[in-house]
Amino acid sequence: xxxxxxxxxxxxxKQLANIIRNDIFEGRFKxxxxxxxxxxxxxxxxxxxxxxxxxxxxxxxxxxLVKIHGKGTFVxxxxxxxxxxxxxxxxxNVDAMGKSLITNTISRYYETATPDQKRFxxxxxxxxxxxxxxxxxxxxxxxxxxxxxxxxDYDSLLTKNLNGSLYSVLRKDxxxxxxxxxxTIELCYASAQEAELLDVPRGSALxxxxxxxxxxYNKPLHITKQVVRGDKFKYALK
Length: 238
Description:
Shape: globular
CATH class of the largest domain: Alpha Beta
Distance between the termini: 38 Å
Helix content: 25-40%
Number of domains: 2
Strand order of the largest sheet: 3-4-5-8-7-6
Largest sheet: 6 strands, antiparallel
């Protein structure tokens, strides 16, 4: 059983949400299946019920869980299907705005996968992931620092021209199509690197968008973190 780590900076409710999310992705919790109660999860992971409640609330907002009064919390059905209320991608949003998007690749290198990343990519041991950092600008104004992680199955991306659509490269070179996953949006604060790239003061409030994406074969494709200037850009719904 996965355990929570009290010595990491990651909040406990987010750690629990990651565990439950991974259990859903890997089929340990099926569609329409009731997950353990707040009391049981609190007992299993030795945390407060309020912490459990925050984790369930987060996954409910992602559309992975649904709470039914008097019955409990269930895995949502259908699972991982895009709906009319899913968010448009960054590129689609910019296209909808009628603006020009410029992408510059900042760096790409391998780094050791975190426990959460290992769970998503179903890795064992001290595996490394390819990390790609790109700066995305609209009409020459820096808007988004985008960080994407892939397994070594996609190591040719180390040498590809990624100053355009990353999905176009995946379709052309790997015949891979992104299909489903989850998206979370929350507030974050600019690190030193993000502040420099986005030309904002360090510690500025920014929008953090995280995607866990599967391909059309339901295999883990990538994790992407976008740090976005919310004062200059807004996500739209389909």
